[in-house]
Amino acid sequence: MSGCHFRYEDLPAHLKVQVDAMWDGKKSEVRGQKSEFRSQESEGKAGEDRPARAAGRCPNKTEASYRADVIARRTDVAAVHYEGLTVRMANGHRYTPDWVVVTAGGRIECHEVKGGYALHSHQRARLAFDQARIEFPWIMWVWAVKTKNGWRS
After folding, report:
1. pTM of the prediction?
2. How many domains does the chain have?
3. 134: domain range?
4. Angle CA(35)–CA(131)–CA(19) in degrees, nearest 5?
5. Where residue 122 sits, what CATH number does that domain have?
6. What percent of the chain has pLDDT over 70?
């Protein structure tokens, strides 16, 4: 995995508001728009951690497997949120990574999880992922693909 590391204190004020709202699970007013960040931190194993969201969204089997196989085994994780952050890019598009991980050191990581089959949607998601990585370099970005031998990042 490669990426930039940063500390909460180094974030611009408008991103601190988003992070605080995500951690608190409260509604927050960001740049004049109301944006609801739902705290989806759950405890338990892959089969148990399918939290209900306002729109009824929850991790699919591949995403839940990634959390159980990769994220849950890490010792530096302070919080995990399913689709907990949406970034708006300069071109007007929005991108929501599958998992947002906040480490004990204050680093934010965004993980995009894909299954082994290369679907057409993967190409579109990869373009959005790469653009978000360029526009938000202080976030560590991870593209994870499930293979028959495990996870490839």
Report:
1. 0.63
2. 1
3. 8-152
4. 35
5. 3.40.1350
6. 69
